[in-house]
Amino acid sequence: MSGNFKYELLKRLQAAGNEPLSGQQIADELNISRTAIWKHINQLKEEGYEIETIRKKGYILKQAANNLDPAKIKALLETTHFGHTIFYEEVLDSTQPTAHRLAQEGAKEGTLVICEEQTAGRGRMMREWQSQKGKGIWMSVILRPDVPTHKAPQFTLVAAVAVARGIEDVTGVRPAIKWPNDLLINGLKCTGILTEMQSEPDLVNALIMGIGINVNHEQQDFPEEIQGIATSLKLQAGKEIDRAELTARILFYLERYSAEYVIEGFENIKKQWESYSCTLGQRIKATTLRDVLIGEAVEITDDGVLKIKLDNGEIKGVYSADISLEP
Ligand code: BTN
Predict the structure, then answer these.
(1) pLDDT tens digits, residue range 261-319?
(2) Which of 28, 172, 177, 299 to pair with 153, CA 20 to 30 A apart?
(3) Kind and range of the H or E element at 10?
(4) Residue 17 backbone zone (phi > 0: left; psi -120 to 50: alpha; other: beta)
(5) What does the record give as the DNA-binding region (predicted)?
(6) Are 219 and 132 in contact (CB under 8 A)?
């Protein structure tokens, strides 16, 4: 079934909710025969969609398949352009290099690269990022904000707020943000964000926003070395989470907050970030490439810098660091 056609069908089924959608109506709207509709419905069922047929009335979508099918993500989108172009592969080494290549080739803002499994997923500070098949959301989004390069680091915080709100809406669980952009639930990491930039000397060409979310992992799905520090949304919310729905929700907030930051500035996003933060007010150890700083995390600035009050009273700012809590 062509992606576009599937998208049109799923969009109508989703919009109809619990009301049966008549096969004749869909056939008329899409200008194909009722038999063709019936075949497409059967194909959706084979893909894992649970669809009830009510005689003489039509079809009801009872349960969507929990996959990252671009047609399904698009049918759930509430954005003006984010996610309207989707590059989907079942397996990629990492979504980041693919998104970089697409951005260099001129891909539009909001282009999404997403896959079911990454064989060489990467995290911040050259770390490896475990990306098991069918369990998480492994995605990169291309942003093209019209801002000078010094305004780029704040997008990491914009992304953290967008993902936190998306998770909260879809799972009912409120994550905490550990500066700059790890999302934790009950102190365990469920999401990491890796922001990379393509730029001219002073102008951002593209930001590649890599987002990795542990969604439907069971405890034993995590490798031993991260057991005890990692968690999934399913483990924390106590229910399976629809990955396409969460992807669409995050794109909604990413579109909204990135535009807001460019047009109105950082103030509102900063407030939201602070309301999710589990770093501010804590005694922390910040390990940067050059230093280890120990003190109280006092504020983030309008540039996204974390200010730390050292034990001697001196205030230092860090742009990027690994943060841990200090007793
Ligand atoms: C971190 O916490 O260290 C950041 C992890 C970022 C992981 C995501 S998954 C999608 C995208 N592709 C990658 O290879 N990495 C990012």
Answers:
(1) 999 999 999 999 999 999 999 999 999 888 899 999 999 998 889 999 999 999 999 98
(2) 172
(3) helix 3-16
(4) left
(5) 23-42
(6) no
| Tokens found for residue 274 | 């602070």
pLDDT of residue 3: 66
Q: Tell which residue, 67, 57, 58, 78, has the closest CA to residue 11.
A: 78
Q: Is the dihedral of CA 100, 120, 139, 84 positive or negative?
A: positive
The answer to whether 118 is annotated as binding is yes
Q: Which residues pair with 47 in a beta bridge?
A: none
Please state the atom number of ligand 1 nearest to the C-alpha of residue 191: 2
The DSSP letter of residue 49 is -
Say how many Å lie between the CA of residue 122 and the centre of ligand 1. 5
pLDDT tens-place string over residues 304-315: 899 999 999 999
80 Cα–ligand 1 center, Å = 25
Q: What is the DSSP letter of 257?
A: H
Residues with CB under 6 A from ligand 1: 94-96, 118, 121-124, 127, 129, 131, 138-140, 182, 192-194, 210-212
Which domains are present in the chain? 3-63 (1.10.10.10), 70-276 (3.30.930.10), 283-325 (2.30.30.100)
Burial (0-12, 13-18, 19+ Cβ within 10 Å), 30: middle
CA of 100 to the centre of ligand 1 (A): 14
